[in-house]
Design brief:
There is one protein chain. The protein is mainly α. It contains nine helices and two strands. It starts with a helix and ends with a helix.
């Protein structure tokens, strides 16, 4: 049988942070394998989608419990699943009593979060300040990230920025 507990036994989920993943671990190949196993058990498409949605919520809650020093009071959701009402409801249930809120509720567009993050990193780089946190990234030390290649108007922009 295909169960959420079985899916939660995926070796990646047991790895300690820092880590990040996406389609390389849980993309088309993973989905096709789950789909094939579920269909072999006679499960319909809706059942497979429901199982994978529940797995997503369970894996997030499990990571919070396993790797955070304590459960947070508030979780700000983002990314593709942040607008999925079923996933959000499952997260609310699994992360209770934490408040689950959106980027928009704290004044940031979900569509702009990556652009804002890179703008902050660029700002820190221009000012010669480290933009990484070794305890979060696994880097050996704090470093200034990226490289600035000045264009023709670079000096003017720096004058305007400091005014």
């Amino acid at each position: 049988m295909l169960s959420i507990q079985e899916l939660l036994a995926h070796p990646y989920l047991a790895q300690s942070p820092p880590k990040t993943t996406g389609r390389e671990q849980f993309g088309a190949v993973f989905g096709a394998e789950v789909w094939a196993r579920a269909r072999a058990w006679g499960l319909g498409g809706e059942d497979v989608v429901a199982t994978l949605t529940a797995f997503t919520a369970a894996s997030i809650a499990d990571a919070y419990r396993r790797f955070l020093p304590h459960m947070p009071d508030e979780v700000i959701r983002g990314g593709g699943g942040a607008s999925n009402p079923t996933l959000v409801a499952m997260l609310c249930e699994r992360l209770a009593p934490a408040t689950i809120t959106s980027h928009e509720a704290v004044g940031l567009s979900s569509d702009a979060k990556e652009a804002v993050a890179f703008a902050v990193l660029a700002y820190e780089t221009i000012h010669g300040r480290p933009g990484n946190l070794p305890r979060c990234t696994g880097a050996g030390q704090r470093v200034v990230l990226g490289k600035i290649t000045p264009g023709r108007n670079f000096q003017q922009l720096m004058i305007e920025e400091s005014a």
